[in-house]
């Protein structure tokens, strides 16, 4: 057989390779983490700082690996009938302690008590967590986050809105680029992973942002038939 190898094939192979490597890195990481813990009780004072650095860098590698694996090799999604009002309410409750630390108030408003769709609740939660985290990080001192869901036409519309730093116009088209980040400790994987999850749900993502005023992410998801 003759077969043209196109760009898509190359991307697929690179993705599989990267996922394979990421997976292989996780095992030695686990043993590093385990053995480093054993050293802790015997550390001299001046070594404690080294220990903290090693630990936080290990954590960082782990975060990148987890998010990267989600992007390169997504787990099989479990689609079922879910209530977006419930999923969003749970997510908002979960994020409240972090918001309080930032002096941020999260307001949640659902038009109806039920907004049914066909989807994977855990993966959608991951999306909402990513968006709320970004909103928090855009408001280091204080601010407000508005989360809402309503049904409009043939879709559910979810909005996550903040009055934070905003995104400069020339950066808007970089948001779906893996590893694009403006943060010292960012991974640049939160939004690409979120976009992928929404795509798997046949949904849409739109962003409206004004520099120094705030940002709104709008997600459209299909209605449950
Ligand atoms: P990370 O949060 O690790 O940087 P993301 O993919 O979640 O990676 O976001 C990429 C970039 O998009 C962020 O570094 C930031 O510059 C910008 N961004 C995303 N959400 C917001 C927001 N709500 N307000 C301002 N900037 C944002
Ligand atoms: Mg993020």
Question: In words, what does this structure look like?
Answer:
By secondary structure, the chain is α+β, with helices and mostly antiparallel strands. The protein has 5 helices and 7 strands. It has helices spanning 7-39, 45-72, 84-101, 121-137, 190-200, and strands at 80-83, 104-110, 116-119, 143-152, 155-162, 204-210, 214-222. Strands 2-4-5-7-6 form a 5-stranded mixed beta sheet, with helices on one face. A two-stranded antiparallel sheet has the order 1-3. Helix 1 packs antiparallel against helix 2 and helix 4 (121-137) runs antiparallel to helix 5. The longest helix is centred in the first third of the chain and has 33 residues, at 7-39. The N and C termini lie far apart (43 Å). Bound molecules: adenosine-5'-diphosphate (ADP) and magnesium ion. Residues 130, 134-135, 138, 162, 164-167, 175, 180-183, 186-191, 215 line the site of adenosine-5'-diphosphate. Residues 20-225 form the Histidine kinase domain. This is histidine kinase.
